[in-house]
Each structure stands twice: as C-alpha cells, then as structure tokens.
Give the backbone structure.
Amino acid sequence: MKIGIIGSGTMGIGIAQVAATSGSEVFLYDANSEQTEKALLNLNKTLNKLVEKQKISSEKSQDIFIKIKPCTELQDFAACDLVIEAIIENKEIKTKVFQSLEEIVSDQCIISSNTSSISITSLSSELKNPERFIGIHFFNPAPLMPLVEVIPGLLTEKTLARKIYSLMESWGKVPVIAKDVPGFIVNRIARPFYGEALRIAEENIATPEQIDDAMRTLGNFRMGPFELMDLIGIDVNFSVTKTVYADYFYDPKYKPSLLQQRMAEAKLLGRKTGKGFFDYAENAEKPAPEKDDELYQTIFNRIISMLINEAVEAKRLGIANDEDLELAMQKGVNYPKGLLAWGFEIGYGKISETLQDLYNEYQEERYRQSPLLKGMNN
C-alpha cells in the first residue's frame, strides 16, 4: 500500500514510521524540505536506538528507513492509496492543501486529516469528492501511543470508517470510531482534567504541586495535570481548549482558563521553553508538595467527578460505544481505568452529589450533570 504523509513534524514523521514499520511504502512531503531532512535524520537516530535496545533488528531498521521516500512536491503523491495530513491546526491552510491534492491523486485515493480538534465535515465540505475524506487522529508520539481515533464526517462514505479501522489494526494500533464532534472522544472528555485543575489553582485552593500529587497518589494517574500540560505544551493545550469551547458555542463546561492564557502570553510553555508550571532548568529542584489528606481528597473528587460526568455525557450522545469510550481514555491518554467503570466503582450517586455541591457553591453551568448521570445512580 502506498501512503502519503503531508507534514514532517513530530506527528508526520511518527505516522510515517508506523506506516513503514507495517510494510507500507511511504511518501513524505513538507513545504519546508529542510524540515523533512531534519525529520529523517532524527528518525535514523531513533531507529538506531531501537536496534541498540534490541527492539528491532538492524535489517528491520534499514527496511523501515528506505520505505520512507522524501518528496519535494505534492505531485509525487499521484499513486498513493491513502494520504494523511499532519500539518498546522488551521482550517484554511488544510483545506487549500486538500483541494490541491484532489487534482493529483486518483478518485480511489482516501484523503484524511490527523487533526485533533477541527471538524472533519467542515474540512471535507470544500472538496469535490468529500465521500473519500475521513479523520485519522493519532496520538503523540505516534509510534508509541496505541490509540487512533477514526472519525467519519457527515459526508464520508458509510463503509470507509470500518476500512480505516481494519487498516489501523493491521498497523498494530488500537482504533476507535468517534462521531465528528469537537474534540472527538479524548480531547472532549479529557478537558476537565486540565480545566478543573486550573480552576482549583486559580482560586488558590491548592498549588499545582499538590494537585498533581493528589491525582497521582489517589487516582494512580501517571502524570498530574500540570506536568502533563508542561509536556504537551501550554500553548498547544490552551489552543485545543479554545477550539473545543468555541465549537461548542461557548458552553461554560469548556471555558478556558485565564491562568493558562497568561502562561501562554508569557511564553512559559512548559518543557519546550524550559519553564512552565514547573522549572526544567538543569539544576532546578521541583518543590515538594505540602501534603494534606483532606485537601487531596477534595481535589481528586472534583476532577474525577468532572471527568466521569463528561464520559457519561459522551455515552448519552452516542459519540462512541461504551467499549470505545473506555479504550480511548486508557490508550489515548494513559488513564489507569475507563471512566465509566470508574464511575461505577466510586458510585454514580457520589459523583452526582459532588457535582451538585459544586453547582450549589458556584452557581455555574460548568457543573451541570449529564441527564444520564442521575439515572445511573448505583
């Protein structure tokens, strides 16, 4: 199978590695050819490390590398069976690329986007043949993260999602099929993990260190919300939040944080700038959190209740089936367990009570419960 990848940034080269590892012939294009050279240089180093660690053989490493062919123009995609776009999150730029691509590839070629937050239907609406367009959303880093969200738009041909689902399985991924809603599954359901943590810090209820520690110790999360935002990039996380908020017609549930905006304005973006909520300078010491059992329980209850409520609402709206909702959060953002199962374990009645208390305190729509939640009390 011939796969075209547009964009040779972190996601683009990661997807190219996944496709080449599965035996596909990959054509890699970036408007900046220097970026492609740099990406291939880094990939070569990555593959060499995998050989050193005996994860792959040197023959496999060479085979993966030679299967990825750098391209200097989109015209080189003429024989591709599937094209995956992985460029900047800008609808206008993406649409222009897709329109150019339609003039080059065959009518049978599937065109897709790796977008994490832009509507698949809106991206396909300007195309001559929107039926062959679909969302294929990988998670970073693509070679390591198992989840792929497959998102058909309103105009996507009905059987295409299942075809891509099967292809992703053959690539060794864990695919889930999601409705074309803002944030799809993961970026929609995960918003309170960051949003509620930011709210707690903004109100000086707890420090970022305490919030992270509470979620790690009480929830067994691999990373707390603040260290995770620092890893993702505070600007990237803020941008996704703003997109989801605007696309849901400014629903208060997804309201962005002023603290996060100020951090982005100050260019305190996390690991990539050396400083975010925490300092990543060589000799910097991470301050130890002041432990407080009661406070930690309050933090955990607030954040987990918001997350479970969001998962229940996604279930109610049929954004995905129960199994895919659970898989998505475990395989896409490494949650220790599925949120629907977690709600059952804690008790949906307790989740409902926590949200009602927050609503009574703040009088904000942000804390409204899914209509389905009350019916799930156990």
Summary: The CA atoms of residues 35 and 41 lie 10 Å apart. The mean pLDDT is 96.
